[in-house]
Design goal:
This protein is mainly beta and 323 residues long. The protein is 11% helix and 41% strand.
Length: 323
């Protein structure tokens, strides 16, 4: 009948005006406040910069989308920091005392965020990048945070986070995959595709103005290894504090001396090398197929190859011999 169409339209209008729609919205809000994240399965880490460990507590932090997973490996228990911007976490690093965690993210106008680990809340934010952050790191003094943009951003910022000012900035011309501070916080080193560069902070400490000064950078003298991809870096500690150790994806462990010159290197005898970590006594190199090799920082002499991790699903208690 002709009046049926009019009746249906009127009913739809009344339904849209009904308070039941508001009740549904409120129920969704109440539901979101009750839902909590209990456990994250999997990771979205694509490189070394999005996984870190606090050497004091042993707490492991890694990225899973817009969530930072804080894993206590001894208790196999997770806590979570959720990025309120919903942007994917691409880089993170603990402060020297383990109280804070700094994160970088992807997307347009990404932020470098500082989080209180115990309370899992944001305490500071820096928004000086445009197209994504590939690496972040605390200085050993805890005074500065350095952030390096991805290959589309190319910015290097040194942030005095307690004063909330960028004290120095510059640009890089290569993709950067790793950053490490010297023991005395006087410089840091970035590595990447055919790239090893030393950045010095003397001008930052003398800068009294609020405007950032140009960050002073000097390229490492790579010599015959100039065509390599340097995937990770670690500045020396203790008696080797003047040295800088890098690893190439082709499987070379390299040492640069205090003059930024490539001093020596050793072959890791692996198809691919990926990561580097060191203490005063040892250098650990992460290689393909779960292989980890240990060397002495003093002369790069080989110490041992660590046992490989057991395959998933195997009964560890039944293993009698190390493979």
């Amino acid at each position: 009948m002709p009046g049926d169409g009019f009746t249906i339209k009127r009913r739809i209008r009344n339904l849209l005006r009904s308070p039941s729609t508001k009740i549904k919205k409120n129920s969704r809000e109440n539901l979101s406040s009750k839902v909590t994240l209990e456990k994250v399965l999997g990771v979205t880490t694509s490189g070394n910069s999005s996984l870190t460990c606090d050497p004091r507590s042993g707490l492991v932090a890694y990225a899973a989308g817009c969530v930072v997973v804080l894993l206590n490996p001894r208790k196999n228990r997770q806590h979570h920091i959720i990025n309120t911007s919903r942007k994917t976490i691409t880089a993170l690093s603990f402060s020297p005392d383990g109280k804070y965690l700094v994160t970088g993210e992807s997307g347009h106008l990404p932020a470098v965020r500082l989080w209180d680990v115990a309370e899992r809340r944001q305490v500071a934010e820096l928004q000086k990048h445009k197209y994504g952050v590939s690496c972040v790191a605390f200085s050993p003094s805890g005074k500065y945070i350095v952030s390096v943009g991805n290959q589309h951003d190319m910015m290097v910022n040194v942030w005095a986070w307690k004063k909330d000012v960028v004290v120095a900035a510059n640009k890089v011309s290569s993709k950067v995959t790793g950053v490490s501070f010297s023991e005395d916080s006087s410089y840091f080193v970035t590595v990447g595709n055919r790239h090893v560069k030393f950045w010095y902070l003397e001008h930052c400490k003398a800068n009294k103005s609020s405007a950032p000064v140009p960050l002073l950078g000097r390229s490492g003298l790579i010599g015959e290894l100039r065509n390599n991809f340097f995937c990770d870096v670690a500045c020396g500690r203790g008696s080797k504090c003047d040295s800088t150790f890098c690893i190439t994806s082709s499987g070379l462990l390299c040492e640069f001396n205090s003059k930024r010159m490539l001093d020596k290197w050793v072959d890791l005898r692996t198809g691919v090398a990926q990561s580097l970590s060191l203490s005063e006594e040892m250098i650990f190199c992460g290689c393909a197929d779960g292989t980890v090799r240990a060397f002495r920082p003093a002369d790069l002499s080989f110490i041992c190859t660590l046992p490989r991790p057991h395959p998933l699903g195997s009964d560890v208690s039944a293993v009698t011999e190390a493979r």
